[in-house]
Amino acid sequence: MKKISLELGGGGRLMRDFIAGRILPSFGNPILDELADAGLLPEGLAFTTDSYVVDPLFFPGGDIGMLAVNGTVNDLVVSGAAPKYLSLAFILEEGLETGVLERVLKSLRTAALKAGVRIVTGDTKVVRRGQGDKIYINTAGVGVSIARPAAERIRPGDKIILTGTLGDHSLAVLVARGEFGLRSSARSDCAPLLFLLPLWKKGALWMRDITRGGLATVLSELAERLPLPLLIEEPAIPLSRAVRGASEILGIDPLYMACEGKAVVVAPARKAGQFLQEIRRSPLGRKAAVIGEVQDKVGKPGELLLRTESGGLRLLEPLTSELLPRIC
Amino acid sequence: MCLAVPARITRFDEPGQGLVDYLGSEVKANFSLLPEARVGDWVIVHAGFAISVMDKHEARQTLRLFREMAKTDR
Amino acid sequence: MKELRNKRAVRRLLDDISDRAAALPSPVRLMEVCGTHTMALFRNGLTPLLAEAGVEMVSGPGCPVCITPDGIHEAAIDLLTEKEGITLASFGDMTRVPTRKGSLQSAVPARDSRAMIVYSPAEALDEARRNPSRPTVFFGAGFETTIPAIAVTVQEAAAAGLRNFSVLRALWLIPPALRAILEAGEVAITGFLYPGHVSAIIGLRPYEFVAGEYGVPGAVAGFEPGDILLAVRSVLDQAVEGKPRVALEYSRAVRPDGNPRARAIMDEVFEPYDTEWRGLGVIAESGLGFRRKFASFDAAKRFGLRTVGSGRAPRGCRCGEVLRAVVRPDGCRLFGLKCTPESPLGPCMVSYEGACLIHYKYNRGAREVS
Question: How many domains does one find in chain C?
């Protein structure tokens, strides 16, 4: 690849190859090599960063400010750390209305309060009109490690819990873009996943928040690091009516649609019921469900399998390139 | 090559255009291919165009057939 | 329509199918010619279930992305990368096909040009309306399900005097392709599953020659698992009884006479001509071109694009034969080795409903069902 294409930013295989082929060789060290959502530092801290580039800035249920706080907070939560501090850096495009910026600042403030984090340092740059897309935000986050994710302790019978419905964020953004003349009640699920933190001390084995690439990408990545196949049940996967409808009419698979406030949690077999109850106690986890398990009866190591509603079996792959609506 | 879903016509805007509803999601649709379609009809929508009106009687028959098959064991 | 996915109903139909398949000489092989059928079989895990019931499902040339020769894909890429100030509006599926010039999706546009993904030709026309001084080209590929929509869009463009709108077309007709496959006689087919939504447009009559002239059974099928299995059962019934015909197993959406208005509109804008399909060569009267009245909307003419292209597949790529079901994806020496979903060499491995991609996915998966 001689020039960077938009495809690279899609978050699928191309991105992973880019990281493996260019980033790791340049910077590789034991912490980075884990390629987890946050770097787990020997000093008992977790450190993560993310940049937020979203169009449009405001969509049903959220905006770029909320994303910038919750996205980074969630990366810490699923890495076993209690989020404490964020940095906040802006790249603003010349000509941006200050009213828009005020809205985003307000949203950042509210989200930070809700997530219990403080913004302790930051930066602002302004670029010429046309050289940026209104606002780009980068946040880096520091948290205190409660526990270390332990994928190596995952055994057959351990359960996979999904904390709620898939694809709501993705659909909200599509609606906000006015694409396909789509109208829907969909609202982004952008939210902090702090309610998952207590599960770490109770024995949670692994967590990941579901962002770009969707559930299938997150679980395929888990499957690849395990010597065991994963099996999930299609009827068990919670979907809102809005996502179900829009995804069918547009030909987009909800298993690959982005969320911004949902996670998968791998629970030890005998604790799954308890974990599920706890998650459901949070308003953000009401629709949580056990959607599958790690097992060794069906499939080969490293595979993610889906048992379909009609009883068939299907292999799920990670997203290889941008999710496009189909007509065929 | 025919990804299409049955959706209910909720309204007509200009001639030949309107909205259809599928499980609560509304999408723009063009009805030029179905001049006889009416609000409330279920139509098959493909690439933003309604191509066929669903036959409700046939649909009910099919659902009935499958409900039967779902019940008894052979 | 979840009754049509019900596990018990599906199991009953599979048992019926199994009984009938056992009464027929093997191999019992059904061909579908619709990318959405290929996808539906795959997404619901039906192909292995049917195999267990004694029925082998093969995919014919039902993927418009796959059968559009490289030349047309390359013309789209040329347009986007060389012409400044244009908008190329394309169906998503079309943008990922690898050609010698890369894929449309990875192409870097010329200055002030951009690509956009649309779900409907109407969106492309809206874009043309919004920016009347900018050429907007709709890259439109499809079969008879989609062609009427494109025809209406062109009519609307003409009526509104939108001179910046044009269509880079790749329009294909299914019945001539069926005839070409039957004529070639390369693979023994027990029966056909006819595409449900193409049939909603063209009705049943265009398939009658399959039963009448070639004695091959067939059924028009919908897209839910139950729909597909009903149609498979119907085809096998015809085979067992020795009475081939064109059965309609999707009556809630398809009338025997299809949609005459849609056909009339297609006929007003387009006319058939002999054209080349990837893998099948030139098939008589199998493609649609613009009638003279609408010729100004033909993007290939307007921009002087060469659409008859290189068409030379990478050495060893057997996509063409796969499209004719002459060879299974794993019969191609590149399959799974040099040609994988991450580094596809041909469209059959790239398109969501490409036979090679689907074969790769479900064949790597479990064979046991617990």
Answer: 2
Burial class (CB in 10 A: 0-12, 13-18, 19+), A3: exposed
Q: Is C323 in the same domain as C299?
A: no
Q: Are the Cβ atoms of C6 and B70 closer than 8 angstroms?
A: yes
With b for 16 or more beta-carbon neighbours within 10 A and e for fewer, the C176-212 pattern comes to: bbbbbbbeeeebebbbbbbbbbbbbbbbbebbeebbe
Nearest residue on chain B to C172, alpha-carbon basis = B1
CATH topology of domain A41-145: 60s Ribosomal Protein L30; Chain: A; (3.30.1330)
- Domain A151-315: give its CATH architecture: Alpha-Beta Complex (3.90)
pLDDT in 10s for each residue of chain C, 370 residues? 888 999 999 999 999 999 999 999 989 999 999 988 988 998 898 999 999 999 999 888 888 878 888 889 999 999 999 999 999 999 887 887 878 888 888 888 999 999 998 889 999 999 999 999 999 999 988 999 999 999 999 999 999 999 999 999 999 999 999 999 999 887 889 999 999 999 999 999 999 999 999 999 999 999 999 999 999 999 999 999 999 999 999 999 999 999 999 999 999 999 999 999 887 889 999 999 999 999 999 999 999 998 875 556 677 888 888 888 888 888 888 888 888 877 778 878 877 667 888 777 766 543 433 3
Asked if B43 has any chain A CB less than 8 Å from its own CB, the reply is: no
Chains near A with 3+ CB pairs less than 8 A apart are: B, C
Instruction: Note whether ipTM > 0.85 here.
Output: yes
Supply the CATH number for residue C142's domain. 3.40.50.11750
Of C116, C72, C29, C37, the closest CA to residue C347 belongs to C72
Structural class in CATH, domain B4-71: mainly beta
Beta strands C55-59 and C28-32: pairing type?
A: parallel
Do residue C284 and residue C179 come from a single domain? Answer: yes
A187 interface with B at CB cutoff 8 Å:
no
Question: Which residues of chain C does B8 touch, with a Cβ-Cβ cutoff of 8 Å?
Answer: none
Cβ–Cβ pairs < 8 A, chains A and C: 120
Q: Which helix (H) or strand (E) holds C88?
A: strand C87-91
Q: Which one of A241, A323, A328 would you mutate to disrupt binding with C, by most C Cβ within 10 Å of its Cβ? A: A328
Segment 28-87 of chain A within 8 Å of chain B by CB: none
Fold: same for A41-145 and A151-315: no
Domain of residue C345: give its range: 314-360
pTM over 0.90: no
